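Q: What would this complex look like in 3D?
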Amino acid sequence: MDRQPDDEAGLYDLVEQVRRIRALTAGGVFHTDLGPVTERLRRAADELEAASATPEERQAETWANRDYIRNCPVTGRGNPLSPPIEFDLLADGTMRGEVTLGLEYQGPPACVHGGVVALLFDAVLGRANFHAGHTGMTVYLDVDYRSPTPILEPLVITGRQVHRDGRKVWSEGALWTGDRLCATAEGFFVLPGDLLRENRRRLTGG
Amino acid sequence: MDRQPDDEAGLYDLVEQVRRIRALTAGGVFHTDLGPVTERLRRAADELEAASATPEERQAETWANRDYIRNCPVTGRGNPLSPPIEFDLLADGTMRGEVTLGLEYQGPPACVHGGVVALLFDAVLGRANFHAGHTGMTVYLDVDYRSPTPILEPLVITGRQVHRDGRKVWSEGALWTGDRLCATAEGFFVLPGDLLRENRRRLTGG
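A: Here is my prediction, written as structure tokens for the whole assembly.
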């Protein structure tokens, strides 16, 4: 039986199991022999590789329905890299997300990796731009780290578009734990030009 | 039988199977019913959760041996988030890594997510600092995106410490595909202070 392209639930359930395993491996210590469970994972990977569409077909799939969110490395329920974060759009146009990050996102002791903080900011600023009607490619992203961002504690991240001039967009973000400011970011974005339109056309055959 | 703390190979093999599955899910289309394979993954996750050490024990494990690299979200063979990248140290102190990123790292069509580019830079600058003898916490990270960074094509990323003044360190990086410059970065780092020393002491019981 083929998986239907609109069977999101099946894919999400599979990815959620990967996410559960992912959460255990950084600093992983298991009171069991990993051999048998690794063999079962190897057979699952063999089976999925044999049944998978080609990279080209999947690449087209990621853009055919402009279904960006589900594949995004930060927000995508279909992407095992993502925590995932779900964002809410506030009345003033601010995107606001809540997330608690596990050991796999650790950089310094008990802290979120600085690069992961930047990754989250690029995503939240991108989402804020999208909802403001002006999705853009990042031209620069400047992140200021003001205090350590903890793992295993609730974080709140916000992003907001602050200025637009034609194809140019400026956005700002902040990351908090409780009432402590952990980091801020400023991004400058330009609306997609010819290269991206060409990529999308090539990928979707449109 | 307990997994021995030094059985890295067992954990790496397990994580590699997760990575194979991870590589198929963004834009995932499978010519099979995902239900049975998802059930097998669910049982594997159940088993690993039941056998796992506590988060506190694992947190201590990530620092007990100062074994940062294997758990890092960018370089860690024991971390399913990482591609992973392996870096080489060049004679002039430059860290140089090569990597090809799959669909799960995609942002704009056919391009690496801008936040992932920032994540890679923070990691390579951190590694360059470590090898220069002055690991630091990121204070700021500024990334300039100069041309689209492609997925599914070989990338070269470099980082180098350019200046140090006491506990303060400045580093620079660049990301290329072939002879095209995709992005550059500048980072400012400060050597860990009391909070980090306290975190490490608490986590390792030292």
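A: To summarize the key features: The radius of gyration of chain A is 19 Å. Chain A touches chain B through 97 residues (CB under 8 Å).
Q: Very helpful, thank you.
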